[in-house]
């Protein structure tokens, strides 16, 4: 149990377009999900905490108008990278919380041309 | 700000040897620590955890040690195998659903 999926697993887009990444908890409900970004050879950096039915909490330095987070149901959170630029190219990873544990998705590789 | 850091960015070991990966944390309020393994292009995979009221916890081939006096965490892997090659992250968090802070990571290479 406790499986988290992400879709798509990879995406390539043109600069200036928007990209939506989905995070789903497949076999449990998660009131809280987290979004991370990971650049090559670096650690995971928390971007925001996504709470079902309320606004996301963003970490310092993360633009909330650029990285739109929606947690409309107990099994789905979405991250939309708006007006993507090459510097947004990264590995985006979500996690879903069940009780006191976090379960991570497989990640989404975003490449902005 | 507070962060979790690692002493060694890379570690190379011979297959069959034991591996020790170290981590230093700075937030004395953290009460829950986790080690994750991340293979290339994948999300982090839970290995083992330990709460602040413990000094040691053992799993299958892995042991985590916590020294709260010097704010140090270590992961020991016994009889390291090629499949253990990956990047290992320590992470700290707080019970009650607070966010998790990841350390810088150590890449483990296992030589056959």
Structural class call of chain A reads mainly beta
Strand content of chain A: over 45%
Extended strand count of chain B: 11
How many strands of chain A? 11
CATH superfamily membership of chain B, which one?
Immunoglobulins
Please estimate the helix content of chain B: under 10%
The succession of helices and strands of chain A, N to C, reads EEEEEEEEEEE
Write the CATH architecture name of chain B. Answer: Sandwich
Give the N-to-C terminal Cα separation of chain B.
40 Å
What characterizes the major β-sheet of chain B?
6 strands, mixed
Strand content of chain B: over 45%
- Oligomeric state, counting identical vs distinct chains: heterodimer
- Work out the count of structural domains of chain B: 1
> Low-confidence parts of chain A, pLDDT < 50 over ≥5 residues?
none
In helices, the fraction of residues of chain A equals under 10%
SSE blueprint:
The complex is a heterodimer of chains A (113) and B (112).
Chain A: E1 4-7, E2 10-13, E3 19-25, E4 32-38, E5 45-51, E6 57-58, E7 67-73, E8 76-81, E9 90-98, E10 101-104, E11 108-112
Parallel strand pairs in A: 2-11
Antiparallel strand pairs in A: 1-3, 3-8, 4-5, 4-9, 5-6, 7-8, 9-10, 9-11
Chain B: E1 4-5, E2 10-14, E3 19-25, E4 32-38, E5 45-51, E6 56-58, E7 62-67, E8 72-77, E9 86-93, E10 101-102, E11 106-111
Parallel strand pairs in B: 2-11
Antiparallel strand pairs in B: 1-3, 3-8, 4-5, 4-9, 6-7, 7-8, 9-10, 9-11
């Amino acid at each position: 149990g406790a499986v988290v999926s992400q879709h798509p697993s990879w995406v390539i887009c043109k600069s200036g377009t928007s990209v939506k990444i989905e995070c789903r908890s497949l076999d449990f409900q998660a009131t809280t999900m987290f979004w991370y970004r990971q650049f090559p050879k670096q650690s995971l950096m928390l971007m925001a905490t996504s709470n079902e039915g309320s606004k996301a909490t963003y970490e310092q330095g993360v633009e909330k108008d650029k990285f739109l987070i929606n947690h409309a149901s107990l099994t789905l959170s979405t991250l939309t990278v708006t007006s993507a630029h090459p510097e947004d190219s990264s590995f985006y990873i979500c996690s879903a919380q069940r009780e006191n544990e976090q379960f991570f998705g497989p990640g989404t590789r975003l490449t902005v041309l | 700000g507070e962060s979790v850091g690692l002493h060694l960015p890379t570690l190379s070991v011979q297959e069959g040897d034991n591996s020790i990966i170290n981590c230093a944390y700075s937030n004395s309020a953290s009460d829950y620590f986790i080690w994750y393994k991340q293979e290339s292009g994948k999300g982090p995979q839970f290995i083992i955890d330990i709460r602040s009221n413990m000094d040691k916890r053992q799993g299958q081939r892995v042991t985590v040690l916590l020294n709260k006096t010097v704010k140090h965490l270590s992961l020991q892997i016994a009889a390291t195998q090629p499949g253990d090659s990956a990047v290992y992250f320590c992470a700290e968090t707080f019970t009650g659903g607070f966010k998790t802070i990841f350390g810088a990571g150590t890449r483990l290479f296992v030589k056959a």
